[in-house]
């Protein structure tokens, strides 16, 4: 057994896990013509964690340009609506359209299937420990 664990190996595994989850979610979302990245934006809007592009950029670590392109694609698909903010004309409020609201439960179910596929073999204690370690990694950042 390795006496000195390599944090780079752990970082590579985290990256690999994130990519695997996103790739599998992309596959599950094909029938809905939504990508994993688009789902994350829709989920952020649905949950109410953010409702303007700048907030979503911050939450998801997206560049403003990438977010603009993503929101334009979601708007073209009829999933997101942009509306001027009542309090600030320079800010655009974002919300799910009726179609976005209608489709979201199916998207959430697809996401749940992927999450269960990858985390379903973990015990509650293992998940608690994993979450605690990840939170510790981000503490103070």
UniProtKB/TrEMBL annotation:
The entry's keywords: DNA-binding, Transcription, Transcription regulation
Coiled coil stretches, renumbered: none
GO MF: DNA binding; DNA-binding transcription factor activity
Pfam families per the UniProt record, alphabetical: MarR
SUPFAM superfamilies documented for this protein: Winged helix' DNA-binding domain
Keyword Electron transport in annotation: no
Matching SMART domains: HTH_MARR
Domain HTH marR-type: 7-139
Protein's name according to its UniProt entry: MarR family transcriptional regulator
């Amino acid at each position: 057994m390795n006496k000195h664990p390599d944090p780079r190996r752990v970082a590579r595994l985290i990256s690999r896990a994130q990519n695997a989850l996103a790739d599998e979610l992309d596959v599950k979302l094909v029938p809905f013509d939504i990508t994993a990245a688009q789902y994350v934006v829709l989920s952020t809007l649905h949950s109410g964690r953010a409702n303007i592009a700048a907030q979503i950029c911050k939450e998801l670590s997206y560049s403003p340009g990438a977010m603009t392109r993503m929101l334009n694609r979601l708007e073209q698909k009829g999933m997101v609506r942009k509306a001027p903010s009542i309090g600030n004309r320079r800010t655009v409020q974002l919300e799910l359209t009726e179609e976005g609201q209608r489709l979201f439960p199916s998207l959430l179910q697809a996401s749940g299937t992927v999450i269960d596929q990858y985390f379903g073999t973990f015990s509650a204690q293992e998940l608690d420990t994993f979450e605690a370690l990840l939170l510790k990694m981000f503490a103070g950042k």
